[in-house]
C-alpha cells in the first residue's frame, strides 16, 4: 500500500527532487531544536501546482505533510513527527521582485530573508524584520513562525510586513489572501491568520511584502549598569521620553563574561548588565536623540556610556552582542534558547525570577535579548546526555513559562510553539482558547494532513521531555 | 553501550558532533550544498549522518556517498558560530569508511597506484623525466578502462592532460642545487618544501619560488629526504600512512637548522601546519611536529614579512584571485597574497564573487568526482567572467590545474591565463628594495 502513494508521488515530482533514500530522509529529520523523526519521502517543490497536487494526494492517502524552509526552527516547526512527506521549500528561491513604486516585494517561499532586504536596499528601501538567522532562514519559515528580530522594537515583526499571500490549503486548493495595498479590510484577515500558523493551516507559495524607505543614518551606544533593575528602568525611561530606538538589546553578566572569555574585547566583566541601543533616522535628529538618551541613562546612574563615533565602532559594539550565542555555547554542549516575552515594564521582575529559577534548579542560565520589546532570550546550557541534569532543565523551563504567563507575558515572542512548547499552550490560552484554535484547525484541515503534531499538545502529554526514550 | 560501538565513536570523533547545534549557518557557505541542492550534501547533514551512524542507527553504506562528495574545503568550519571541528569529524568518518567498507580488488589496485606509487614523491620523482604524472595517470586510465574500474570511479584524466604545462627535462631537474645562497646579504635561512605536484608538473614555479626567496634575502636549502606532505592520504582516511610521511618530513627538515619551512602549495601547507595533531598519543613526536609546524610558512607570508622586493613591470589586464581553501580556511593566510598582488605597479585587481569558495579541485576530488567538481567549477567561471579578468591567480597546484581546465572549458584559453602567485610576481620583475 505504502508504495502506491510513493509511485503516485513520482508522477508529480520525480527524482532528484523526490528523495527516498535513507541518507536523504535522515537529512530532513531534524531542525535546530530537539529530536529527529524520519520522513518517508522528501519533495523539493518548485511551483504552486506541484504543491497543490502533492497535498491532494496526501489527502487521498491520509499522509502527513510537513512544510520545511531551511530547518532553523528552534521550536520543532518542520519536524516530521508523524513521518510522511517533508515538503522542502529551500530550493524554490527564484522569484524576488521589487516594485519600488508600490514599495512592495513579491517573493517565492524559499528566498532567504536577508536577500529580500539586500534587494530592497538597491532602491533605497528596507525590509525591516531582521531575525539573526536571516542569512540562512527562508521567508516561508519566517512567515510560518512570524519571526522577528532586534528591529522589532521600532518596526514590528514579519506579520507587520505581509500584505498578500498565495496559499495552498490543506485540501490542496490554491487561494490568494490580501493583495498589494496597505489598506485592505475585505472579509476576514486570512493573511494574518496564516502568518505564524507554523505551517498548520496552509502552505505559502508566494508572499507580497511591504517595504519602507531605508532610514538615512543610524547611531549606536552602549550603556553599562551595576545592577539589573536599573537597566530595566532605563529602558522604560528612554521609551517614555519620546524616543523610539530601532533596537535595545540587553546582555547580562553571564553573557558579558562568556563573550570576554570567548573573544576578549574589553567588555566590563564586573557590570551586571549592558544595554546596546541603536537609533536610526535623519542624521540631525538622531544626533539630538542620542544626546538625550545618553543624558537620561547617565542621570539614572549608568556606570558608563559609550557612543560609537564611527560605523566601525558601532559594528564592534554589535559584535559583542552577536558573539553571545557562540560564546555561551562553549559553556556546555546543549543550548536551549527560549523566547518567553513579558510586557516591557515587567522586564526587571522577569529577570529576577529567572535568577531565582537558575538558583533553584542549579542550571547554567544566561539572559540576553531584545529587552526593548520585552522579548528576552533566557538560554540554558546543559548536556543532553546527562539525564539527571535534563530533568532539572525541563522543570526550569516549565517554571520560566509559568513566570512569563504570570507576569502577563507569553510563551513565545518569535520562535513559535511547535513541539517544544505545545505542552504549555493551555496554560496561556486556557481550555476555551485552545478549543477555538482547534476548531479553526479542523475547519481548515479536516483530515489533519498539514504539520500534524504541532502547536496542540498530543493527548496525554502535559510536560516537556528533552531526553531520549 | 557495547565496546565496539564505543571504539567506533572514539575513532569517528563522535564527541565532536555534539558541538553542532544544527543552526544551519554553514549551509550558504558549502559549495556542495549549492550545487547538489540538498541537505544530505551539506555540513549539517553530514555531521548528522556521522552522528546517527556512530550511535548505531545507520548502516555505514548510508554514510559513503555524502562523505565521498565532501570537498574537505573547510568553508563550513570558518562560518560555524559554534566552532564545530568538522574537519576532524570528516577525517574520522573517512578513516572508518576506509577501514570498514569492503573494497573491490580493482579499487585496491587503483588506490595502491595513486597512494603508494604516485604520491609519495621520492620514489615517483626519481622516475619523473620522460615519465610524467599524466603518463602515469593516463596509464591509470587505461588500466581503469581495461579492468572496468572506470565504471566504479570514472576517471576523467584526459581532460586534465590537455591543460598541463610543458615539463622540464630530466637534466634540468637534476641540475637543481640543494643549497642556494641568498642574493646579496643573507637575512634568513629557509628550508623549501617542494611538494609532489609542484616539483614535477609545476617544476618551473618551484624554480621561480627559489628565485623570489633568494632575491628577498633568504638562503634556501632543499632537504633531499623530504617526501609527500600526506594531505591526500589523510583526506582519504589513510591516517597511518599520513603519519609515516609526516615523520619523514620532520626528520628531513630537522637535519637542517632553518628559520622557516616554506611551501608554495596551499593544500600541502595546510597539512604541514597540522602535523602536530597526528601525534596525539605520542608526546615526543608531538613536540617535534609542533616545532616543525610553527616554522611552516606560505611563500606569500614570508615575502610580506621580509618585505625586500619591489616590482618593476606593470601587468596588463584585470587580475582576479582564487584563494586556495586550505590556505584560507586552515592556514588562515588571507591577506598576504592580495597584498603582494596589489604591490605590482598599475595592477587592476578585481575581486570575484565567491573568491573564498572552493573551486572544486580539492585534492583528487576532481578526478574521482569529475561531474560534481565540474558543476562547482562552472559556477566559479561565471563569477570569474564577471570580473573580465585576464589573469586568475591561485596559490595551490590543484587549484591552478582546475582554473586552467575552467578556462579551457569556457573556450577562453586565448585571452585568459591562470597563474600561480609566484609566476605573477616573477613576471612583474622583482628587484631588491
Ligand atoms: C542561531 C539561530 C538564531 C535565530 N534567531 C532568530 C531570531 O532572531 N528571530 C526569530 O524570530 N527566529 C530566530 N531563529 C529561529 C528560526 O530561524 C526562525 O524561526 C525562522 O523563521 C525559520 O525559518 P526556516 O526557513 O528555517 O524555516 P523552518 O525552520 O524550516 O520552518 C519553520 C516553520 O515554518 C513552516 N514553513 C516553512 N516554510 C513554509 C511555507 N512555505 N509555508 C507554510 N509554512 C512553512 C514550517 O512548517 C515550520 O513550522 C533563530 C534560529 C537559529 C538557529
Ligand atoms: S556545523 Fe556549525 S554552522 Fe553548521 S549547523 Fe552545526 S553548529 Fe551550525
Ligand atoms: S568541507 Fe566544504 S564541501 Fe565539505 S561540508 Fe564543509 S563546506 Fe561543504
Would you spell out the secondary-structure blueprint of this structure?
The complex is a heterodimer of chains A (469) and B (433).
Chain A: H1 2-12, E1 18-19, H2 22-27, E2 41-44, H3 48-61, E3 65-68, E4 85-88, E5 96-99, E6 104-107, H4 113-121, E7 125-126, H5 139-145, H6 152-155, E8 162-168, E9 174-178, H7 190-194, E10 203-210, E11 212-213, E12 217-225, H8 228-240, E13 247-252, H9 253-262, E14 273-281, H10 283-300, E15 304-307, H11 311-322, H12 324-329, E16 334-337, H13 347-361, E17 364-370, E18 375-382, H14 387-406, H15 425-444
Parallel strand pairs in A: 2-4, 3-4
Antiparallel strand pairs in A: 1-2, 5-6, 6-10, 7-11, 8-9, 8-10, 12-14, 12-15, 13-14, 13-17, 16-18, 17-18
Chain B: H1 3-11, H2 14-17, H3 31-36, H4 43-54, H5 60-68, H6 75-79, H7 86-100, H8 105-118, H9 121-127, H10 133-147, H11 149-152, H12 157-161, H13 170-175, E1 179-180, E2 188-192, H14 203-215, E3 218-221, H15 231-235, H16 239-254, E4 260-263, H17 266-272, H18 283-295, E5 296-298, H19 299-306, E6 309-311, E7 318-321, H20 325-330, H21 336-343, E8 348-349, H22 365-368, H23 370-386, E9 391-394, H24 397-409, E10 417-420, H25 421-427, E11 430-432
Parallel strand pairs in B: 2-3, 2-4, 4-5, 7-8, 7-9, 9-10
Antiparallel strand pairs in B: 1-3, 6-11
Helix pairs in contact in B: 4-5, 4-7, 5-7, 8-10, 14-25, 16-18, 19-21, 23-24
The site of one iron/sulfur cluster has 15 residues of chain B, from helix 4.
Structure, explained:
Chain A is built from 15 helices and 18 strands. Chain A has four domains: 2-88, Uridine Diphospho-n-acetylenolpyruvylglucosamine Reductase, domain 2, CATH 3.30.43.10; 96-213, 2-Layer Sandwich (Uridine Diphospho-n-acetylenolpyruvylglucosamine Reductase, domain 3), CATH 3.30.465.10; 217-326, Alpha-Beta Plaits; 331-406, 2-Layer Sandwich (Alpha-Beta Plaits). With 469 residues, chain A is of the alpha+beta class. In chain A, a hairpin with a 4-residue loop joins β17 and β18 (375-382). Chain A is globular and about 70 Å long. Chain A has helices spanning 2-12, 22-27, 48-61, 113-121, 139-145, 152-155, 190-194, 228-240, 253-262, 283-300, 311-322, 324-329, 347-361, 387-406, 425-444; strands spanning 18-19, 41-44, 65-68, 85-88, 96-99, 104-107, 125-126, 162-168, 174-178, 203-210, 212-213, 217-225, 247-252, 273-281, 304-307, 334-337, 364-370, 375-382. Chain B has 433 residues and is of the alpha/beta class. Chain B folds into four domains: 3-100, Alpha-helical ferredoxin (Fumarate Reductase Iron-sulfur Protein, Chain B, domain 2), CATH 1.10.1060; 105-161, no CATH class; 170-303, Rossmann fold, CATH 3.40.50; 309-432, Rossmann fold (3-Layer(aba) Sandwich). Chain B has helices spanning 3-11, 14-17, 31-36, 43-54, 60-68, 75-79, 86-100, 105-118, 121-127, 133-147, 149-152, 157-161, 170-175, 203-215, 231-235, 239-254, 266-272, 283-295, 299-306, 325-330, 336-343, 365-368, 370-386, 397-409, 421-427, and strands spanning 179-180, 188-192, 218-221, 260-263, 296-298, 309-311, 318-321, 348-349, 391-394, 417-420, 430-432. Chain B is globular and about 65 Å long. Residues 121-141 and 147-155 of chain B have low confidence and may be disordered. The A-B interface holds A 16, 19, 21-24, 26-32, 36, 44, 70-72, 88, 90-91, 112, 133, 135-137, 325-326, 329-330, 333-335, 385 and B 18-19, 21-25, 27-28, 37-40, 42, 45, 48-49, 52, 58-59, 62-63, 65-66, 81-83. The structure holds flavin-adenine dinucleotide (FAD) and iron/sulfur cluster (SF4) (2 copies). Residues 20-26, 43-44, 47, 76, 80, 82, 84, 86 of chain B line the site of one iron/sulfur cluster.
